[in-house]
Amino acid sequence: MIKLNQLIRSFSYALRGFKFVWQEQNFKIQILIALIVVILMYLYNLTRLERVALIIVISAVLILESLNTIFEHLADILKPRLHDYIMIIKDIMAAIVLMASIGAVIIGLLIFWPYFFG
């Protein structure tokens, strides 16, 4: 049985986490780009498969950016003891988000190119 109070509490924790990630500049930029892409999805009347692909890559980038924020904050806690490793971990996480973002841009271009220039 679903307990409504626990469900509401879970959503409030998730919202608090979202507010925390929202403080990150890159996350705000990625949300803005995601909104533009969603608007373009409907303006150009994309196929269902194209929409699904775009939603998957948007979700992947936002999730990875959120994980990056988690790792950065965890790393900052450990920094006094493991500074060389912390820098490497932060750089790797940033690279992962960059790779996902580049992949998302490529997928976006492949999908939208025919609609823009076809």
TrEMBL record:
Which cellular compartments is it found in? Cell membrane
A GO term (biological process) for this protein?
A: phospholipid biosynthetic process
The entry's free-text remark on the cofactor is: Mn(2+), Zn(2+), Cd(2+) and Co(2+) support activity to lesser extents.
InterPro entries per UniProt: DAGK, DAGK_sf, UDPK
Query: What are the protein's UniProt keywords?
Result: ATP-binding, Cell membrane, Kinase, Lipid biosynthesis, Lipid metabolism, Magnesium, Membrane, Metal-binding, Nucleotide-binding, Phospholipid biosynthesis, Phospholipid metabolism, Transferase, Transmembrane, Transmembrane helix
Q: Name the cofactor(s).
A: Mg(2+)
Q: Which GO terms describe its cellular component?
A: plasma membrane
Q: How does it sit in the membrane?
A: Multi-pass membrane protein
Its chief place of residence is membrane
Residue intervals passing through the bilayer = 29-46, 52-71, 92-116
- Is the keyword Lipid biosynthesis assigned to this protein? yes
Q: Which residues bind a divalent metal cation?
A: 24, 72
Residues that hold substrate according to the record: 51, 65
> A Gene Ontology MF term for this entry?
kinase activity
Q: Where is the active site?
A: 65 (proton acceptor)
Query: Does the record bear Metal-binding in its keywords?
Result: yes
Instruction: Locate the residues binding ATP.
Output: 13, 24, 72, 90-91
Q: Its family?
A: Belongs to the bacterial diacylglycerol kinase family.
Q: What is this protein called?
A: Diacylglycerol kinase
Q: Which organism is it from?
A: Candidatus Kuenenbacteria bacterium CG23_combo_of_CG06-09_8_20_14_all_39_39
Q: Specify the taxonomic lineage.
A: Bacteria, Candidatus Kueneniibacteriota
